[in-house]
Structures are given as C-alpha cells and as structure tokens.
Amino acid sequence: MPDRWKPNVTVAAIVQRHDRFLLVEEHTRDGLRLNTPAGHLDPAETPQQACVREVLEEAAYDFTPTALVGVYMNRFVRTRTGADITYLRFAFTGDLGQHHAQQRLDEGIVRTVWLTYEELQASAHLHRSPVVLQSIGDYLAGQRFDLNLIQADASIFSPPSAMAVPL
C-alpha cells in the first residue's frame, strides 16, 4: 500500500490582553521565530485539550478555549531536509488564567512576548508560520465559531478495538 498523505495537526491560542497579543519566541531549525502558543495534537486528546496543554507548556498560563477562530492549512519545504510538510491548524481564542511564573517552558521556548498587531505585522518575517498573522487578523475581524463545531468521538480516548469500523 502506498504511503498516505497525512497533514500534521496542530493547535494554537490567540490571546489578547489590552492591545497586545501573547506570543512565544522559540528556537527552530530555521532560527529564532515568533509563534502564538501552539503545538501538535497528541494521541487521546481533543484539539481544545491540546490547546490548553500547549499554552501551559509554552507560556506557563492556564487557558480556557471559548471559541474557534479558524482552521488553517499551510505547506512548506524544510530548508535543511527538503521535507514537504503540510500543517492543519486549529486556532482558538479564550480566557487566560493564572500565570505559573516558576514553571519551566517547553524545550526551545526562549520567552513569552506581548506584541501589538502593528508589531506583529512588522515582524512577519520572523513568524513560524504565515497563519500566525492571518489567524490574528481573523480574530481582530471578529471571526469566532462555536466550540461544538469540533466533535470528538469517545473512541479517541481508548485503544482501538479489533472490531472497530473505520469511517
């Protein structure tokens, strides 16, 4: 059977406080980059749960998603390996909770930064992905979708059954 194409599923949080947005500065294969708190969907978690986990791991804040801002796809070729990669990103907005100042940030995260939209536009060449600015622009335009748009069957939380019927 030939290899199936599978996009990498990621989540991201768009958090605004006054006129600034929460970003993380992180080391990547392509150098230091800016990103919204984001990361990969792990097994046995919903996109919302993944977003809560990623904000805590990357920015040391509790986070409660309240709306889906959008679902974004982007594709690029890694500069060092030549790998052709497609990402499917669920971007959420929500309520920022307690900051855990003593918590160690995820590997590669240098620090959190709060930037205005104008500063984000000026630093677009440093963004980890083009969807960082696009999703924040959609957020500022008022784009919000109910979290019930994303449904997760209970089967994602348990090992697959030999009798399971694929969709």
TrEMBL record:
Record keyword Hydrolase present: yes
Pfam families: NUDIX
InterPro entries: NUDIX_hydrolase-like_dom_sf, NUDIX_hydrolase_dom, NudJ
Highest taxon in the source lineage: Bacteria
Stretches assigned to coiled coil: none
Keyword field: Hydrolase, Magnesium
One example GO MF annotation: ribonucleoside triphosphate phosphatase activity
Cofactor list: Mg(2+)
Subunit and interaction comment: Monomer.
Listed PANTHER family: NUDIX HYDROLASE 23 (PTHR43222), PHOSPHATASE NUDJ (PTHR43222:SF11)
Family under the similarity heading: Belongs to the Nudix hydrolase family. NudJ subfamily.
Protein name as it appears in the record: Phosphatase NudJ
Lineage of source species: Bacteria, Pseudomonadati, Pseudomonadota, Betaproteobacteria, Burkholderiales
